[in-house]
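ESCALATION

Customer reports they have been waiting on this structure for their group meeting. Please prioritize. Original submission:
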Amino acid sequence: MPRIDSTLTTLAVAGVIAGSIVYTVQYLNNSPGGLSALGLTNVSSANAAETTTGGATDGTAAQPALQSQWAATAAGRVEPEGGVIRISPERAGVVTDVLVEVGDRVKKGDLLFKLKDDEVAARWAAARTEIDVRKRERSEDIVDDEKLKKAAEPRTKAEDALGDAELATYTAQRKLDDAYIAWRQDGGPAANVETARKALEDARKTEAEKRAALETEKAKEGTPLPTRLEGGLEAARDDLAVLEVNMQRTRVRAPRDGTILDVSARVGETITPSPQAPAVELGNLETLIIRSELEERDLTAVEKGQKVIVRSNAFPGRDFEGQVRLVAPSLSAPKLSGRGPRAASDVDVVEVEIALEGQPPLIPGMRVDVFFKPTTTAEASGSSGQPAKPTN
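Update from on-call: job pushed to the front of the queue and completed.
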């Protein structure tokens, strides 16, 4: 009898432990943040069981009321629309001005920071002088063939017009930079920035028109080739164009509209081009997306247009709604930093992009859990292995 009692006691204890494990797994599958809290990138759809009702206008959904299965679940990360843009200078240099701070809104082309440019500026001034000298030599050149000289006049006038337009564009860009610096650093009028921005747009448009006009003149039959002096003038203008490009490389600008997410550039520091250590990070916070990673076994359970629920540990008890907008066409190595006993290199995943609805209070970099709602087409595709069109 003692041996039987001992055996029954052992079996009872084992049953309690097994029940506790099952309850814990089910609780984690059904609790907000339960997946990413353990570093799990996915939980089989057979283990997840919930369903949800409609959501509010800000993207918040009502809490689950009935029990059913999710099509799939996965971990994800919040990103700005278009991702985070990491900006570094094209050349090494000493930072002389930093014009933005974290949280600033910028427009495409706005100056973010400047590098030391005194050497390039001196060479640019010398190139401008060289152009003036070449133009004077050309005007003083004596051409015996008046007919040839007259035939070349439309081309030379078009070249001069383009040169003047290029200089006007360069000058307008400098004026915009000066107005922007005065606004950012000294509290100058914002209206001056917009006026200078409009002037730069007009200058660029004029330059494009003059360039097209020159190409038209060059294409005309009977247009003579440049003389030696005209060729020297054209070479001087090319040298100036190269210096203008080098000058612009000392001015790091926003490649698109967005919000400054991070600034590591400091006045007085020498910085170099480095994708791994960007000087500024920029992102579009007007629209947020979720980038999730789905295991291969759940591929047929997820499709474009499918509804999802997103949960974050930062907002316990709240669900945010979204919709799948992209399922990657191929497998890749996991990019989200995994936590837990399973190494990220053990399994390949399918990347899924999810568009959030409304304006949820999530921020870039936040880890979330994604619950994919079941659809009739997703369930049907599971038997054939081929995804079908969404019905919702």
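Sent to customer with the following note: Confidence is low (pLDDT under 50) at residues 30-57, 61-67, 339-344, 381-392.
Escalation resolved.
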